[in-house]
Structures are given as structure tokens and as C-alpha cells.
Amino acid sequence: MIMGEKAAMLPLMLILNYIMLVSVAVAQTNNDDFTALVSLTSTWQNKPLNWKGSPDPCNDGWDGIKCINSRVTSIRLTGLDIKGELSEDIGLLSELETLDLSHNKGLTGSLPHSIGNLTKLSNLFLVDCGFTGPIPDEIGSLKELVFLSLNSNSFSGGIPASIGNLPKLNWLDIADNQLEGTIPISSGSTPGLDMLLSTKHFHFGKNKLSGTIPPQLFTSEMTLIHLLVENNQFEGNIPSTLGLVQSLQVVRLDDNLLRGHVPLNINNLTHVNELYLLNNKLSGPLPNLEGMNQLSYLDMSNNSFDESDFPAWISTLKSLSTLKMVNTGLQGQIPDSLFSLSKLKNVILKDNKINGSLDIGDTYSKQLQFIDLQNNKIEDFKQQDMAPSSLKIILVQNPVCEESSGVTKGYCSIPELSVPSSTTGKNCEPATCSSGEVFSAHCKCSHPYTGTLRFRTPSFFDWGNDTSLQERLMHTFQFCNLPVDSVSLSIRDNYPSLEFTLQIFPSSRDYFSQGEILRISSALSNLTMDAFYFYPDEYEHYEEPTESSKSSNAGFIIRAAIGGGSSLLVLLLLTGGCALWLKKKAEKAIQQNFPFGSGDPIDSNSGIPQLKGTRRFFFEELQKYTNKFSQDNDIGSGGYGKVYRGILPNGQLIAIKRAKKESIHGGLQFKAEVELLSRVHHKNLVSLLGFCFERGEQILVYEYVSNGTLKDAILGNSVIRLDWTRRLKIALDIARGLDYLHQHAHPAIIHRDIKSSNILLDECLNAKVADFGLSKMVDFGKDHVTTQVKGTMGYLDPEYYTSQQLTEKSDVYSYGVLMLELITAKRPIERGKYIVKVVRKEIDKTKDLYGLEKILDPTIGLGSTLKGLEMFVDLAMKCVEDSRPDRPTMNDVVKEIENVLLLAGLNCSTESNSSRYDEVSVQFSPSLQQ
């Protein structure tokens, strides 16, 4: 009887063991993260539909959840009408890098103090929710934070001084809340916002902030671009220190209680293109803004300035598009030179004392659309019969309109100003769409995703039409591979609070899925961050996921059984119908954990990919070749792991790069990296010989490059000494290698981590680019948007860092830093000084060697003439331009360095492209596009 029972139990025991093994493979989300995520969202209403019945967030692709190596790194759940609170459990997601819960008005309550536990958080977006209470001081613990957007909530209390402790913060948006008090300034050990030297955006508008704008807030070391403090209760003077921040582009001080004179040095802000001083109590003479040649939008209306003639300096503002000076004490005649400004569109000068004749001249701007001079003292209009019909002129309540000639004059009435409106669907054949459906531009009936675009500044009114905006939106959706057929825009007539109604139409069917809505919201969030906000409407046309797309509830049962020991219940439920599900899940887990298949790497019929010139090594082999990875063979280390020297049986030296456990990628990502490296072949790139993927190891085997890194050679940590001509040749080698990646690999490859420690020197001191662990493949000529910035500080392209938009010009910037490192032997950031800024400050083109002798590396050979140094420095500074379009391509760099070598009297042996590059065809790999 006992033997019979054992025999009967044997199949059940085998099934239980199988279930337990598979559940480990299937349940790929880290248990702590899974528990935290379930606890965090347990009381939420309106969670994503595909969470229902899906047992594992990472493995089953929960909408809005992104994982790396089983850890939850991103939560993006925008515009789902989620209701509930953000509980303290958010602090348990220790690997979280992005949290975006924007546009969920039903998310209420205070922001939990445990938010400070998310020490890896770089992006926090809680826009347009219902949060209340103070912003917690613990925000100041998030040292990795780059973007902080808490705007459009009901936060109260003061601005936390601890925000000043965030060294990487680029974007600070706390607008449209109920914040009170003053702007915190550092004092002793107490931090303040004046410490945010790297922050480019201060968005504080539409609050109840008061007191003075502290002079200590501004210094010449700041990189601030936007200062938006409109609609508050600030009083006192505009601090003169504002003129020190010459990086500013938009300044909004409007709708406050500011008094006194505008600082004389405000015209130092030569990069400002929008300046708003309206609706304050400013007095004294009108500020002289001469020299602000990038100023496009100027509004100083409704202040208490001294009466003055129309200032001559206004006619010198070459970029001026809109001029608004309502009720500012202007008098005298407007010079016709004002209207000849080539970009001028709108002139609004009503409620002043302007007199004489209105003369727009014969060379007035072809952009001119609107002149409003109501309630002035103008007696005549010279071009009344010649002004184009497209130009709207209003002279109501001027003497010129009080004559009783009996002739109706168009400029003596207030016209209805037409605003642009989308024509989407208006040219479609008559047809009836179902309830709630709308015609798209392509005459398809569907349920559009709708919302409001609300602009930060009214200057968008100068665009005049919505065509460019529609094109920009469609380009973004197409680039992100979103199923969007077309977009429709219609302006809401509530200027200056400019808003558009946006409709986004689906292409593949008549509705969007919830996952697609989340992706569209994310794309709009990235696109609109700088110019406007997107406020979505609730979308009610989702369809429940089909049974085929759902995962069975068995996953939850497995977790419960493993945790609670209810094995018999699991067996009864799973023995029958779940067998096939388990098999499929097991196969999927196996593929994730061993993506290379199985079999003999030498056998062409095996499942292992046949990679050109690349073979699979077994772990035992590599142990043998390195004497069990002995310390004697350790030749270097980095963030990824250690590098060992090895010797193959035929005597060939190899370099073996062994990943640390915490640096190991997912299997598919490692496979993609191997396949990429096996396809790139160039004499200035380190060649991949093989790989090892077993026993939990990820190992890459490279050709051995004997003379170490360029970093060691430059810093004198090796016996190698590099003279001027050798450095030029090394610079050319690196440039050729990068030019190959950018121009001759298909698709293009962006290295992302060019630095001296990733350049190796062979026995002839030829340079080879190494370490492709961060490389990305992209469509050539297109921007590649990435959610996570990678690279090395000091070499990192600042535009990539701030915009998270990666192009080949990011490699060009890093290469430019490397060029400066080559001639100075200084690290990119040394003792708090950035090499780019140091060189830029020291350059004096009137002197020999550009006056750089004191910072040049003395071992470069200063006793001899450094022919071509000036050309080399000029090229380096072009490579590190802040704006990407101003940087050269790597192909241009190659040609320029070849010219420098010729100037130095050396033939650089330039080969033709056809012989120099080994053309390859690299296929896109999804894991490298993330």
C-alpha cells in the first residue's frame, strides 16, 4: 500500500518540481520589487488593463513598467485617470530611475517622505495631478535627479531649501501650485537654490511666492536658460545680478509687484529672445535694451515708466518679432525704421501719447501682420491706400479717426482677428461616423485621443499658423513608431493664455490601445517639455485585452503556492490545462537566459549564430588560457569588470574582458552586443575574437593590444612618450575609426563612451577604439531618443545630457574633449575645472600657439615648432560647440587632421574610402535601441 502511494505521488512530485523550477524562470521581477509594486498600487483605481491576470510585471510586459535585469527601473502611467494616493511603498523600489504619474487628477494626498529613498531616481514627473501639502525636504536626497516636474498640483508651503543639494538637476518646474514664502538662498550649511549652477530651467510661475527676488540667486557661473516667475507676489527691485546670467534665453517677471528702475545692465543678456516685464509697478526711464540682438518678443506694458519719446534703440533689435508697450508713457512719432525690421510681425502700442503721422515706410517687413495703436494722438496715416489687406491696423480713438469726411476707414474700427484652425476632416465625402467617432484628415472614422496644448509663453502666437506644429507632432509620432494616422489642431481664442485643442487619430484601427496611449503620452511629454504642456482628456475607447494576450492567473497562484506551501492546490489546478502554458513559459525563460541556443559552436548546424570571425569559447578554455584568471594576468579593470591577458594554444595573445556580476546584461542584450561587435571590422577598432556565455558568466575575447591605453601614455603612467606628430597620428586613427562607425556601418553606430581609457595603442602606437558596451545603432541622419543617458562625465555631450537625445554629434563632442586631453595631458575634469572651459578661457589667437603654452603638456615638445597646433585647437573647439549643428562630422574631422599632418610636413597616407573601410551590414537589435 505504501509503495502504491509512493508510485502515485511520483508524477505529482515531478510536476511540483517542474512548476517550482519554471516559476523561478517565469517570475522574472525581483521579489522585493514585485511586492512593492503590488502594495503601491493595491488601492489604486483605473490601473492599466493588461495588468489584469498577468503574473509578472517584467516578464509579461505590464504597460507603463520597464525593467532591467529583473529590477523595476521605470514607471510611466500618464493620463489613465488613476485614483488613489502615492503610498510610502514607493520608497521600496530602490532601482527606480523614472517615475511619471502625470495627468492623473485622481492621485491626491501628500507626496510621501519615502520618496527620498529612491537614490537612483533621475526623472520625477508628477504634472497635473491632485497632490497637496508641502513638497517634502527628502527631495533633496535624490542626488541623481535631473528632471523635477511638480507643476499643476496644489502643493503648499515653501520651496524646500534642500533642492539646492541636487548637483545634477537640469529642470526644476514647480509652477501652478499654491507655494508661498521666499526663494531659499544658501547660508552656512543651509542649502539654497543659488547652489543650482547646472540647472537650466527655473519655472516658478503661478504661485503665491513673495518677498524680493534675492540678488544672491544669480551669478555668472549659472547656466540658467529659463527664468519664469510670473504671476506671483514678488516685490522690490529687479536685482542687478540678473544681468550676470548671460546664458538666459527667456525671462518672465510679469504680473508681480516689482518696483523701481530696471537695472542698467539688463542689456548684458544678449541671448535673451523673450522678455516679459508687463503688469508690474516699474518706474524710472525705459530700460535701454540696445545690443540684445536675439530679442524676439518684448512686452513691458502697464508699468509706471517716465514719459519719453519713442526710443531709437528699439529699431536696432534685428530679431524683434513682437513689440508690446501698452500704457508705458510713450510719446512722439514712431520712426518708420521700426517697421523695416525684417522679422517684425506685431506692434501693440495702445494707450500711450504717440502723435504725428503713422508712416510704415516703403520697406516695411513682409512679415508684418498687426499694428494696434488705439487711444493715442496720431493725426495721419500716410499709406492708407497702399497697405496690404493682410496687415491689420487699428487706429481707433486717435485724431485721424475723428475726422468727419464721411468715408469709412477700415483702420478706424476693431476687426475680428482670425485665428488658425485645423481643417481636419472638412474635405471628406458626406458620411456618418459612429457615435463618438470623428473624421481624420484622411477621412477615416475613428476615436481620437484628445487633449489641450497649453503654451508657457504667448510668443507662440507669432507663429501665425499651426502647420509647423502639426508637422513636428507627426514627425515625433512617426519617429517613435506610433500608430498615428494624423493630428488635428484648433486654437482656443483666449489669448494671451494660448491653448490648442489637439486630436490624435489612430492608423491601424478605429481606437488606440491603452499601451499605445501611454506611449503617445510619453512621446508628447518628451516633445513638449520646453515649449508647452499637454493636458490629456480621458480616453474611454480601450478594449479589454483578449484572452490570447492575457497571461493566466496561474502565475499569481504559483507565487502564492511557493510562498505559502499550498502545493496540493497548485497541482490540482495546474495538472491539466496549464501544462501547455508552463511549457511555453519555460521555453521563453530558457530563451531569455540562453539566447545563443545550444550545440557545438564549430557545428554550422547548431543553434549558435555563426558570427563572422567570432567564435564561442567555453569557460574551461578561458580558465586554462588565463591560469584560472590569475592576478598575474590581470591587466586592467573598469566599471564593467576586469580584463585578463590570455594565450591561445597557437601562441596568440588575447584580452579577456570578464563582467562583474552586478554589470551583467540580460541574455538578449549580451547577444545583441556580440552580434554587433562581430560585424564591425576596421584597423582602428579593436577586433572581437569571441565570447563566452555560460555559468552565469558574460565574457568577451578581444585581440590583444600591447601598449595599453592612451590615458596611461598621456598621463605618463607608461614608458611611452608621445611627441606632437605621434599625437596627431593617434588623433587621426581615432577619427577614422569613429568615421567608420558613423558613415560606413549600416545602420550607423554611436560609440557613446569615447575617452582616453577606451583608446588602446598597439606595438606601432597605432590607436584602436575599444569598449563598445554602451554603443547604440541608429538610423543615420536621425536623432535617437533614449530614456537613459550613458557615458562618462567630462566627455559627455551636454546637449545629449540635457535633452536625452543621442546623435553621432555626441561622439564628436567626446572626441573634441579627447583632442584637448591629447595636447594638455589634463583630465577632462581636474580639481573642479572643466578642460573645455579652461582652454576656451585661455585662448588668445593674437599670440603664438594661441597663448596656450602654460597649459600644454611639456612632454609634447615645446622646444620645437608645433606646426598646425592652431588648426588642431580650432578643430577641437568646433567639436565641443554647445549646439550640435555647429559641430563637424567625423568625416570632416578626418580631412582636417589630414591637413594638419600635411602642414606638419608628414604624409598621412590617406587611403580611399573603398580600401580603408570594410563595409558591413548590421541588423537592428531591439535591445540596443532601448
UniProtKB/TrEMBL annotation:
Keyword vocabulary terms for this entry: ATP-binding, Glycoprotein, Kinase, Leucine-rich repeat, Membrane, Nucleotide-binding, Repeat, Serine/threonine-protein kinase, Signal, Transferase, Transmembrane, Transmembrane helix
Membrane association type: Single-pass membrane protein
Signal sequence, renumbered to the chain: 1-27
Any single Gene Ontology cellular-component annotation: membrane
Broadest EC class assigned to this enzyme: transferase
PROSITE patterns membership: PROTEIN_KINASE_ATP, PROTEIN_KINASE_DOM, PROTEIN_KINASE_ST
Location relative to the cell: Membrane
InterPro entries referenced in this protein's UniProt entry, alphabetically: Kinase-like_dom_sf (IPR011009), Leu-rich_rpt (IPR001611), LRR_dom_sf (IPR032675), Prot_kinase_dom (IPR000719), Protein_kinase_ATP_BS (IPR017441), Ser/Thr_kinase_AS (IPR008271)
Main location class: membrane
UniProt keyword annotation of Protease present: no
Residue ranges of every copy of the Protein kinase domain listed in the record: 629-902
Residues reported in the UniProt entry to bind ATP: 661
EC number: 2.7.11.1
GO molecular-function terms, A-Z: ATP binding; protein serine/threonine kinase activity
Family matches, as Gene3D superfamilies: Phosphorylase Kinase, domain 1 (3.30.200.20), Ribonuclease Inhibitor (3.80.10.10), Transferase(Phosphotransferase) domain 1 (1.10.510.10)
Keyword Repeat: yes
Protein name per its UniProtKB record: non-specific serine/threonine protein kinase
